[in-house]
Design brief:
Elements (H helix, E strand, L loop, with lengths): L8 H13 L2 H16 L3 H16 L2 H22 L2 H10 L5 H10 L8 H18 L4 H10 L2 H4 L7 H14 L8 H8 L4 H15 L26 H8 L8 H13 L21 H6 L7 H22 L6 H7 L2 H22 L4 H13 L2 H19 L2 H12 L2 H19 L2 H20 L2 H18 L4 H10 L3 H29 L6
Helix pairs in contact: 1-2, 2-3, 2-20, 3-20, 4-10, 4-18, 4-19, 4-20, 5-7, 5-16, 6-7, 7-8, 7-25, 10-11, 10-20, 10-23, 11-24, 12-26, 14-25, 16-17, 16-18, 20-23, 21-23, 22-23, 22-24, 22-26, 23-24, 24-26
């Protein structure tokens, strides 16, 4: 059974179940159980093996650090939301936009302060930009599209201070355990960023549309144009929204805040790890953090101060962890234990920020509520990671890497491995609506191919990350798409189809570039 076609069974179980259910975790659970019973084919043995694999993965220090980081990062986002930092920043920016081109410029500029997670960026920026851009005569669909372009594709390229980077480092670390590569996770992440070609192509397209292309105009300030009509059941809000669009200083009105809460209820954290409900949002389950943030005065400093502190501490502590014996700054970063440094920076930021909020008379109950509620929103990511680690360990024990190296590399030309991996990942991520899920399923396969000595490891990692970025950006099942459509009152499928049409062209350009890179770098291993 070891190193044979049977080693593929756990992953062959995961992918179709994920595509069928539109959720990744059920597939991983079944894959874990199937693999465990393959190794221990008796009633009790398979179940015990599954639990052992899960417990063993939690006990790995680097894995435990990552789980703590993700919970803490969710707590950080929860704190800046519950203290009014998000709404305060959005309102402050909304008063400074005078032209349509300036609106696009501000859309890009706001990424400096809202790059931590795509859904966080959408919920923070889309409501205010919706009113501003419509008032300036810009197509609502185009304005929403530009916010989406500066969310997942941009955040996937930022190697510090995002919810993506912690997950990426953890996934790379797990995959590297089954290779003979000399890379460490964080340096490999940095090396893979230039090869996330879909993100670069998408951003280049966004820059062209924002600053060099004629801006599509709305037929009226109150119209969504582009064939867009209010979401069924929400037509009663149209007149209120239209009147808001005429105000020079947009505010987050009660009904707009209500749509934000619906968006948060409709979409889990960007991970998509627990799947996305794409039907009508259930108004009986409003997001508790948005309810709480609506009870305080908006204050942009409650976002800006902790964010700047987090970035500075992450940079300094990452340098500190690798500076001993390093000849320069770059070498210090390459030698650093980045995941541990990010966790340390996050903990210090949480403590200092909590004290800062107390001095600003934010109650201790509010601070604890934001901390715990925000952290709990990341638990779906932690569950996903835990099962990814366990299934990867079982696959390694079944000889998955050895079989993949022997069979796939024997039949697929080297130059076509990377573009094929990218296209497969795009299909998977589109149909499950999850960047994280696609990365989890394909990264072990990509690394197994590279370990055979026929692939450039940063190129393969970049292609996998790019394929997941495609689905997180374009899929109608993506929580980003659902949140954006709900907040802006664009019809979900019409907006998703528009994004998909553009994304397919970006994907085709990326595939051609991967073909060229695959040909050039086919003999540059690891």
């Amino acid at each position: 059974m070891y190193g044979t076609v049977f080693a593929l069974i756990p992953f062959l179980v995961v992918i179709p179940i994920a595509l069928w259910t539109k959720q990744v975790i059920p597939g991983l659970v079944v894959g874990l159980l199937v693999g465990s019973y393959m190794l221990h084919p008796n009633v009790v043995g398979g179940l015990q093996a599954s639990l052992t694999y899960l417990v063993n993965q939690v006990s790995v220090p680097s894995n435990a650090n990552l789980l703590l980081f993700l919970f803490g990062f969710g707590s950080f986002v929860g704190l800046v939301r519950v203290t009014g930092g998000v709404e305060g920043f959005a309102q402050w920016m909304g008063t400074r936009i005078k032209t349509a081109r300036g609106g696009y410029g501000v859309t890009w500029l706001t990424s400096v302060f809202t790059f931590m997670a795509p859904d966080f960026r959408i919920v923070a920026i889309a409501p205010i930009m919706k009113n501003v851009m419509t008032r300036l005569g810009v197509s609502l669909r185009q304005a929403a599209f530009m916010i989406d372009l500066t969310s997942t594709p941009l955040i996937a390229l930022i190697p510090i201070g995002t919810v993506f980077v912690g997950y990426m480092i953890g996934l790379l670390g797990t995959s590297l355990q089954h290779t003979t590569s000399h890379y460490k996770p964080f340096p490999l992440l940095l090396a893979s960023l230039p090869f996330n070609i879909f993100s670069w192509v998408a951003l280049a397209y966004g820059i062209y549309v924002s600053f060099f292309h004629k801006i599509p105009k709305s037929q009226s300030a109150a119209s969504t144009t582009d064939g867009s009509t209010p979401v069924p059941g929400q037509s009663g809000h149209t007149s209120a929204t239209s009147s808001q669009n005429l105000h020079p200083t947009p505010q987050l009105s009660p009904h707009l805040s209500h749509r934000v809460r619906i968006a948060r209820a409709a979409a889990s954290a960007e991970t998509g790890a627990m799947g996305v409900h794409t039907g009508q949002p259930d108004n009986s389950f409003p997001d508790a953090l948005d309810e709480a943030s609506g009870q305080v005065r908006p204050d942009a400093s409650n976002l800006i101060f902790p964010l700047i502190l987090l970035l500075i501490l992450t940079f300094v502590l990452t340098w500190w962890s690798g500076h001993a014996g390093a000849a320069n700054l770059v070498q210090a970063f390459l030698r650093a234990n980045a995941s541990r440094a990010m966790l340390e920076a996050l903990i210090v930021t949480l403590v200092v920020s909590s004290v800062y909020y107390l001095f600003k008379r934010q109650g201790i109950d509010r601070i604890m509520f934001g901390f715990l509620s925000g952290g709990n929103e990341m638990m779906s990511v932690n569950v996903l990671l835990l099962f990814v680690w366990a299934v990867s360990a079982i696959s390694a024990d079944l000889g998955f890497a050895q079989f993949t190296q022997k069979e796939i590399t024997a039949f697929v030309p080297v130059a076509f491995l990377v573009p094929a991996l990218f296209v497969l990942g795009c299909l998977i991520s589109y149909f499950i609506g999850s960047s994280f899920g696609a990365w989890a399923m394909l990264m072990p396969l990509g690394f197994a191919i590279a370990n055979a000595g026929v692939g450039h490891l940063p190129l393969i990692a970049g292609a996998v990350f790019a394929s997941g970025t495609f689905g997180g950006f374009a899929s109608p099942l993506s929580d980003n798409t659902v949140a954006m459509a709900t907040v802006t009152k664009l019809p979900l499928m019409a907006y998703a189809n528009y994004k998909t049409r553009v994304a397919i062209w970006l994907c085709l350009v990326s595939t051609v570039l991967y073909l060229g890179l695959g040909w050039v770098m086919s003999h540059h291993v690891f």
